Here is the input.
Amino acid sequence: MLEYPLLFLFPAAMAFAGAMDLLTFTIPNRVSLALLAGFLGAAPLAGMPMAELLGHLGAGLAMLMVGMAMFSRGWVGGGDAKLLAAAALWLGFDNLVVYVLWTAVLGGVLALVLLMYRRFFPPLWLARQTWAMRLHDPNEGIPYGMALAAAGLVVYPSTAWMAPLAG
Here is the structure.
């Protein structure tokens, strides 16, 4: 019963990370750290077996390495790399492929929408919003944390974490 509130940490943190990336083009380190701490608290409370716990830690570490490699090449930001690793920690290897596929699909949609948005003048009601004008700037990157967050929110309900709530 104590683990239930911790189960909502993942979707809340992912939604916050996506919103922060949209508005500021940064994902605060505290989001990834909260996901790490939340996982380390929720896993034992949920009775996760040690082998499964180690698997989740391995997934997080593997994606941290992938994220660091992508960051070193300038493909993603540092916050994106850390969020990718934190999400993989919660999702584990069992859901990692689906998560990465959803991230790629939603990242592609995000890029297309952003390209269209940058092609036209922003709506007048957004013209005074700093975040909207920054999104409109073709010299800015893509807030890929939105795709990472959205993919996490799509995949999370089908994970073992949600099994206690289902029934």
Q: What stands out?
A: The helical segments are 3-7, 9-24, 29-45, 50-72, 78-119, 130-136, 145-155, 163-166. The chain has one domain: 3-160. The chain is about 75% helix and 0% strand. Residues 23 and 130 are 8 Å apart (CA to CA).
